[in-house]
Amino acid sequence: MGDLYREQMLEHYHEPQNYGVLADAEVDVHLDNPTCGDTIHLTAQLDAEGRIAKVMFEGHGCVISMAAASMLTEAVVGKMPQEVAALELQDIEEMMGGLRLSMGRVKCALLSVNALKKGLKERGRL
Questions:
Q1: What is the CATH number of the domain that holds 53?
Q2: Residue 5's pLDDT band (cuts 50, 70, 90)
Q3: Distance of alpha carbon 67 from alpha carbon 121, whole angstroms
Q4: Is 62 helix (H, G, I), strand (E, B) or coil?
């Protein structure tokens, strides 16, 4: 991973975007990764057309899980739930600057997107 992307990951970890909880969220889900202890509480609002209008998260975990959550909250705004459902590991790795993750880190990187997918499914949006 290049220095620029490493710096970007650390920036998202130390100063996460969209950190917090939406009070009037349509999607509200908690998810954890028992393997390493990462946890996330993700909330989201959808607009009248069903697109993701706003996403926020709080939680704790490793640099990869928290940076991925921060980046995800920026990347999915304006997307339809079906577009979120189609996101895979490769998409998350590309979002994180082309980072290729070891098997032990995959769950960390996917925690936030899995939480969003779970929340959308629970609300009947997927």
A1: 3.90.1010.10
A2: low
A3: 24
A4: coil
> What are the structure tokens assigned to 98, written together?
């082309």
Count of the separate structural domains present in the chain? 1
Decide if 57 contacts 41 (C-beta within 8 A): yes
The answer to whether the beta carbons of residues 60 and 4 sit under 8 Å apart is no
Residue 35 domain boundaries: 3-122
Query: Which 8-state DSSP code applies to residue 8?
Result: H
What pTM did the predictor assign?
A: 0.93
CA Rg, the chain, in Å? 14
Q: Would you list the DSSP string of 65-126?
A: HHHHHHHHHHHSTT--HHHHHT--HHHHHHHTTS----HHHHHHHHHHHHHHHHHHHHTT--
